[in-house]
């Protein structure tokens, strides 16, 4: 049984041997697969580029990751974002995009010089680690060379803000650069500040007197107990006169 489909690019009617009941989208794609107009050929070329890029994404990030000496990215949302990026690049809506993952390095997708879609993944952090050793020490990590490209971590920050040692270290490493730029360090400092605020006691949270006393005692041990990491005040000084005015004891 033959079905008549119409190329959505040029409008040409095409006979296809397909006895299925096709949706409009399926019929359009079937026509595009067989029509020889320039626009349909360009569409097929673009779809081949996308298929090849998606195959490379699966290979580098999942199927062959361990064979290539890299960790497998098991988060389907990340893989989906990478594949959607490949389509955006094929559609000329994005030139290139680098996705920095937590613990799995970076994946860069972009147009190659030959016009195809290139997929590159980097997981080596040796240069970043060397360039930013001081920053790690400032945050409480003690790192020493362990031979070759390996390092040992002998100490970690006392407060990990609800993260494991590995999570915090990899989060920090992924957001620093090999040139040791201050901007990268400031970016990560801002991220730590946000993490600290999210882990803090929120308004309207009920605390026992003992918990409140302990929290204040811990606050007063800090080098700067007067502001949160974002600069907002944690302690406000008020004179007796100001308090009396607040309670309308005096005018």
Please, could you describe this protein's structure?
With 251 residues, this protein is of the alpha+beta class. The protein folds into three domains: 86 residues, no CATH class; 74 residues, no CATH class; 46 residues, MutL, C-terminal domain, dimerisation subdomain (formyl-coa transferase, domain 3, 2-Layer Sandwich), CATH 3.30.1540.20. It contains nine helices and seven strands, in the order ββαααβββααββαααα. Strand 1 and strand 2 form a beta hairpin. The longest helix has 26 residues. It is elongated and about 90 Å long.
Any chance you could write out the topology, listing elements then pairs?
Elements (H helix, E strand, L loop, with lengths): L1 E5 L6 E5 L6 H11 L3 H26 L12 H15 L5 E5 L5 E6 L5 E6 L3 H6 L1 H6 L3 E4 L5 E5 L9 H10 L7 H18 L9 H11 L20 H7 L5
Helix pairs in contact: 1-2, 2-3
Distance between the termini: 94 Å
Q: Radius of gyration in whole Å, from Cα? A: 28 Å
- In terms of DSSP E residues, the strand content is 5-15%
- The percent of residues in helical segments reads 40-55%
- Give me the secondary-structure category: alpha+beta
How many domains, in number, for the residues?
A: 3
Number of strands: 7
The total of helices stands at 9
The rough form would be described as elongated
Sequence stretches where pLDDT stays below 50 over 5 or more residues: none
- Read across the widest sheet, the strand sequence of neighbours is 3-4-5
Mean pLDDT: 80
What is the string of SSEs from the N terminus onward?
Answer: EEHHHEEEHHEEHHHH
């Amino acid at each position: 049984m033959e079905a008549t489909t119409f190329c959505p690019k040029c409008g040409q009617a095409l006979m296809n041997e397909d006895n299925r009941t096709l949706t409009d989208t399926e019929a359009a794609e079937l026509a595009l697969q067989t029509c020889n107009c320039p626009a349909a050929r360009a569409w097929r070329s673009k779809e081949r580029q996308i298929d090849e890029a998606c195959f490379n994404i699966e290979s580098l990030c999942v199927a062959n990751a361990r064979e290539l000496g890299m960790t497998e990215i098991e988060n389907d949302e990340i893989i989906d974002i990478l594949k959607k990026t490949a389509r955006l690049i094929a559609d000329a809506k994005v030139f290139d995009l680098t996705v920095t993952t937590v613990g799995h390095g970076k994946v860069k997708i972009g147009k190659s010089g030959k016009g195809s879609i290139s997929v590159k993944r980097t997981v080596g952090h040796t240069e970043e680690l060397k360039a930013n050793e001081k920053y790690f020490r400032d945050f409480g990590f003690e790192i020493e060379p362990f031979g070759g490209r390996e390092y040992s971590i002998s100490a970690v920050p006392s407060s990990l803000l609800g993260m494991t040692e590995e999570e915090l270290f990899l989060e920090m490493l992924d957001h620093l650069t090999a040139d040791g730029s201050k901007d990268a360090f400031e970016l990560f400092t801002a991220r730590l500040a946000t993490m600290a605020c999210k882990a803090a006691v929120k308004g309207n949270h009920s605390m026992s007197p003992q918990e409140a006393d302990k929290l204040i005692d811990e606050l007063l041990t800090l080098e700067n107990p007067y502001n949160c990491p974002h600069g907002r005040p944690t302690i406000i000084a008020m004179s007796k006169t100001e308090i009396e005015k607040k309670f309308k004891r005096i005018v």
